Amino acid sequence: MTTIKTLCFVIAALSSYAALIYRLFQVRRSWRDTAYRALVITLLLQCLTFTMGAFAMGSERFLGVGNLAILVMHLSAVAFCVSAQIILLHWASATEESGRRARYWLIIGVALDALLTALFFIADGPGRPAEDFNTGSGRPLILTYLLVFMVSQAIPCVTILRQCVPYARMAGKTSLGQALRMLSVAAVILFLYCLARVVNVLTAAGGLDIGGWTLAASVFSALGIVTLSLALTISSWGPSATKLLEWARGYRSYRALYPLWRDLYESSPDIVLEPPGAAVSDLNYRLHRRVIEIRDGWRELRPYIDRTTGGDGQVGAKGSEESRQAFAEAAQIRQALHAKRTGIIPDDNADTGDFEDRDTDNFTAEVVWLTKVASAYRRLAKAR
């Protein structure tokens, strides 16, 4: 169990340092921004918290004082929570009211740190076994210390969650909205950490052994801090990540359309504006061209499409009506390609019309639909 707890501290510390280093690269252009300075301070406190946690797992003394690493970890955790609350206030509003509330949280943070320090030394924290600060050991002062610490962590989680949800709705799909939603998730996970720690302390004080479930607190802590680190940096890397995901989706669609496009191109080479190539440097343009060329190739096939064909498309077609329709379209295309190669024109052909009333003005929907048709076309080819 000690190994897993140490690993959780290390994961939380590494994610904190990664977030801090990433944000420090922006120091030149952002240092005058109050919200940015608050963010850097928060990440510094976050790093200190989990560095001390990892240190405490390996040594009972810090600077020659027993359990001092635990005290520093708890004090910096309180400061870190207060600082995160202040960041949210700056994100939400830059008014005088937010400044007043930030000072209010600072006073609370200082008072809590002073109370924890007093309880630590009154309870003879330096002389107690380090395990007492995990279980409480049934000693009233240690129990009080731990419960005060957990309350100091739980309350900011609740207030952050209450503030994030409405502001995230107002921010919509912007990078700030994404950060607020992720911050909400982090607040929920860290609140679960607080509950798990309280359960660990109270069950130990009552003489109950919950076994491996005591690790839940460490897991929630690491998961919550990783999520929080992402939330505090997503406004910088979020847009780039979104573009990368859009490129990946576009490339996947571009590749998925290839078998259908290839056969249509071989049947009607004049549909291609430029010679085929493997480069995808201008993927958006190439994807548009591929969709247009598939449509043009299909129109070239209209005299050869038998309106009575479509039953073969039901081979392997399961699921929604749209999926069955995609298989029917794919089957008609296969039949039409064969008819064109053999020179047979069906009596009941589709010399006019389009792909089943699909809205070709919506490019995204068009790509999705043609990808389904191409997938069905590929599956029909394999079934033969």
Automatic annotation (TrEMBL):
Domain DUF6545: 246-379
Pfam families cross-referenced by the UniProt entry: DUF6545
Transmembrane segments: 6-25, 37-56, 68-92, 104-122, 142-161, 182-204, 210-234
Keywords annotated in UniProt: Membrane, Transmembrane, Transmembrane helix
Top-level taxon: Bacteria
Keyword Membrane: yes
Protein's name in the database: DUF6545 domain-containing protein
